[in-house]
TrEMBL record:
The lineage of its organism: Bacteria, Bacillati, Bacillota, Bacilli, Lactobacillales. Belongs to the FtsA/MreB family. Residues 391-400 have a biased composition (Low complexity). It is a peripheral membrane protein. This is Cell division protein FtsA.
Length: 430
């Protein structure tokens, strides 16, 4: 990929791997290639078999290469919010004994100073997001280069993730013959495309109903404030159909796609369809309503658990409502079911780009959008990380948003936990 106006997003999901190739022309991303393959070697969004995952990535990349007529070498990859942790960091350096002009090296030095800390051996730095620079007491500076000063400070947000998750992801990409351009937390990427400027500013809940897991992300003031991951997704709905109807998994998935709906109240007993049953030579007839009740039961459980986590941090006080996306959001009736569970306005986001008009493509589309909007100051700060992005990566137009990790596991004192969570979340709203 010699042309640096080409961006490739790689979304490694539990049930499918998607690749989107786009060309940046006069500030506009044009989709020129798409590829997808059935996932292998993944469980709940995490790679558990590197070789199988690498092969699935190669298949999806090959499809995208053929359609885009280019050779893909670098990719922007998304990582799930599983066990994501963040912390506020601050760095400070002396630019000189007397006022002197601040350079790229000074920015790198102050970012490196912010990273001076001891991490647990099982965690790795994922990304560092600058929120402001301060030059001799003058704050809220986005890019201090070219200014003069004696003291330079940087406030930022450090994202860390389990070392195993990041290592397996990077290794699978390497085995697939690719190099990393960026590693991005998936909710950050999705927020780039699924939310309007007003929704990201005033505050909105973004829910990704994926195949292996479901993620709720709270965005306020253009920053990701909270994430909660439920370890169930669309594949669990398919498994329920398979078990209850005693049919094969592939047949159950087809039933979900062809006849499934998440709102049983919108179905009728009289509408039936044939189902191939294991051990029987003739199919049985099943009503549309019965299938909807199976689907609705599992999704209600998932949404209810996410609802509890969001209520604990007063997320529903935000005016933007709820936006749902992800592969499972394609089910008819999902918006109505979510509104019943959350008791707040819900809308569904589906990409409107030609060839991507399915909510399962939101993450991959967000990845290329995120990469194309990076600024050079973001790149400078990111370059001090132990595993920085590719040296020739294009900078962004908007600083990445910051993500607070899921709070600590519950203790036996539930009332104290809820109170602490509200204080924690409230601090981000200030």
């Amino acid at each position: 990929m010699e042309n640096q106006d080409i961006y490739v997003g790689l979304d490694i999901g539990t049930t499918s791997i998607k690749v989107i190739v786009a060309e940046l022309v006069q500030g506009q991303l044009n989709i020129i290639g798409v590829g997808s393959s059935r996932s292998q070697g993944l469980s709940r969004g995490v790679i558990v078999d590197i070789d199988k995952a690498a092969e699935a990535i190669r298949q999806a990349v090959s499809q995208a290469e053929e359609k885009a007529s280019i050779k893909i070498q670098q990719v922007v990859v998304g990582v799930p919010a599983n066990m994501l942790q963040i912390e506020s960091v601050t760095g400070m350096i002396a630019v000189g004994d007397q006022s002197k002009e601040i350079t790229d090296n000074d920015v790198r030095a102050v970012a490196a100073a912010a990273l001076v800390r001891n991490l647990p051996p099982e965690r790795e730095m994922l990304s560092l997001t600058p929120t402001e620079f301060i030059v001799d007491g003058f704050d809220d500076i986005k890019d201090p280069r070219g200014m003069i000063g004696v003291r330079l400070e940087m406030h930022g947000i450090l994202f860390t993730a389990p070392k195993t998750v990041l290592h397996n992801t990077k290794k699978a990409i390497e085995k697939a013959g690719l190099t990393l351009r960026n590693v991005v937390v998936s909710p950050l990427a999705q927020a780039q495309v699924a939310l309007s400027d007003g929704e990201a500013d005033f505050g909105t809940i973004l829910i990704d109903l994926g195949g292996g897991q479901s993620t709720a992300a709270v965005i306020h003031d253009h920053k990701l404030k909270f994430t909660d991951v439920d370890q169930e997704g669309g594949e669990y709905v398919t498994k329920d159909i398979s078990v209850v109807l005693n049919t094969g998994y592939a047949d159950a998935e087809k039933l979900k796609r062809d006849y499934g709906t998440a709102d049983s109240l919108a179905t009728h007993e009289d509408n039936t369809f044939p189902v191939a049953v294991v051990g029987k030579t003739e199919p049985i007839m099943v009503s549309e309503k019965y299938l909807a009740e199976i689907i609705e039961a599992r999704l209600t459980q998932i949404l209810t658990r996410l609802n509890e986590a969001l209520q604990a941090v007063d997320a529903f006080a935000l005016p933007g409502g709820i936006v749902i996306t992800g592969g499972n959001a394609a089910l008819p009736g999902i918006t109505e079911l979510a509104q019943d569970v959350f008791q707040h306005p819900v809308k569904r986001y589906i990409p409107d780009e030609m060839g991507l008009r399915h909510p399962a493509f939101t993450a991959a589309l967000g990845l290329i959008t995120y990469a194309s909007q990076m600024t050079d100051i973001d790149l400078l700060v990111a370059s001090v990380l132990p595993n920085p992005p590719a040296a020739n990566e294009r900078p962004a137009a908007q600083a990445p948003t910051k993500v607070p990790a899921k709070p600590a596991e519950p203790t036996s004192d539930e009332p104290k936990k809820a109170s602490a969570l509200k204080r924690f979340f409230g601090n981000f709203f200030e």
